[in-house]
Amino acid sequence: MPNRKASGWIALVVGLTSFAVGLWLVWDSCDDRNWARTGGTVLSSDVQTSFSITSFEFSYRPVVTFEYCADDVKRQATATARGRTRHRDGLIGATSAAMDYQRGDSVQVFYRREDPARAALEPEPRRWHYWLLTVSLFVALAGAITLRSGAGRSATPAGSGSRPERRP
Question: 102 and 83 in one domain?
Answer without folding.
Answer: yes
